TrEMBL record:
Organism (species): Ridgeia piscesae (Tubeworm)
Region (Disordered): 137-157
GO CC list: extracellular matrix
GO biological process: cell adhesion involved in heart morphogenesis; larval heart development
Protein's recorded name: Uncharacterized protein
Length: 157
């Protein structure tokens, strides 16, 4: 992504940093023009994009087509949803777990993208392991803005 003749330009590096800092997932993993990945599909969660296929160019284009499915929900899911209790995470255990990984060996001879994907995968795994889930109800929201009933204000003149 953003690599031309082996050089990473300033704007490309800024874009790459933005993608990584935003924890976006790149779904196009095959070349889309010649031997280079020039066309990308990004999402905030891997589950949002599915079935990515690189197809032949359309018409006179020198870029391959990218076909993919975007998963969206048309109506609200009323099932119990699980969310992370971030404030209850066992962060000391996380650090110890990550410190046991031989990062030099794990990331040796890998590209920057491969290193990022490995790191992101390990972090996701650690969060799943050390941050408990909070079960939420069946889609009903409670009113967090009004905890007490409104009182009728009376003004005397």
């Amino acid at each position: 992504m953003g690599i031309y003749s082996g050089h990473l330009y300033r704007d490309d590096q800024e874009f790459l940093n933005l993608v990584q800092d935003s924890f976006l997932s790149q779904h196009v993993l095959e070349a889309t023009r010649g031997e280079t990945v020039l066309d990308i599909v990004l999402s905030s969660q891997k589950e949002f994009v599915d079935n990515v296929k690189i197809c032949e160019p359309l018409g006179c284009s020198d870029h391959n087509q990218i076909h993919f499915i975007i998963k969206v929900k048309g109506e609200r899911n009323r099932k119990i949803r699980n969310r992370k209790k971030i404030h209850k995470g066992r962060y000391k255990d996380m650090m110890e777990y990550l410190a046991k990984i031989d990062w030099n060996k794990t990331l040796k001879n890998k590209t920057a993208t491969e290193c990022w994907n490995i790191l992101k995968s390990e972090i996701d795994c650690v969060v799943d392991k050390f941050v408990p889930l909070k079960k939420q109800g069946n889609g009903q929201r409670r009113n967090t803005y009004r905890r007490k009933p409104l009182e009728k204000s009376s003004t005397s003149k």
